[in-house]
């Protein structure tokens, strides 16, 4: 059974929302907490940024223990098209509230979007 999950994107991160909406960003990553581990292939992600919404179907799900492992397998640009280095990517992740700790505890989940 297909489920729809709401995924919030902060207004300050609108460039990520726009990239998902226009299809230039085909993956979404989150700390692999219980909430995000429940999302399965075939589910719908309803991305919300301010008053804007866009829905994308999940066509693949992968789990990683670390940012380095994820970037090594998928490449930095597939995950964050706007960054140029692993260090820059880590700085962005760690700028989100409690994300460094969440990643260390739960790892990361990557959703491949249709």
TrEMBL record:
Residues 13-112 form the ASCH domain. Pfam families: ASCH (PF04266). InterPro entries: ASCH_domain, PUA-like_sf. This is ASCH domain-containing protein. It comes from Candidatus Shapirobacteria bacterium CG07_land_8_20_14_0_80_39_18.
């Amino acid at each position: 059974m297909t489920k729809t999950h709401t995924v919030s994107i902060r207004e300050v991160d609108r460039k990520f929302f726009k990239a998902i909406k226009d299809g230039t960003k085909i993956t979404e990553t989150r700390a692999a907490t219980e909430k995000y581990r429940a999302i399965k292939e075939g589910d719908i992600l309803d991305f919300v940024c301010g008053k804007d919404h866009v829905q994308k179907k999940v066509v693949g799900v992968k789990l990683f223990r670390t940012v380095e492992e994820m970037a090594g397998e998928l490449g930095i640009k597939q995950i964050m098209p706007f960054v140029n280095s692993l260090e820059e990517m880590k700085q962005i992740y760690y700028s989100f509230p409690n994300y460094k700790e969440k990643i260390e505890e739960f790892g990361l989940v990557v959703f491949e979007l249709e």
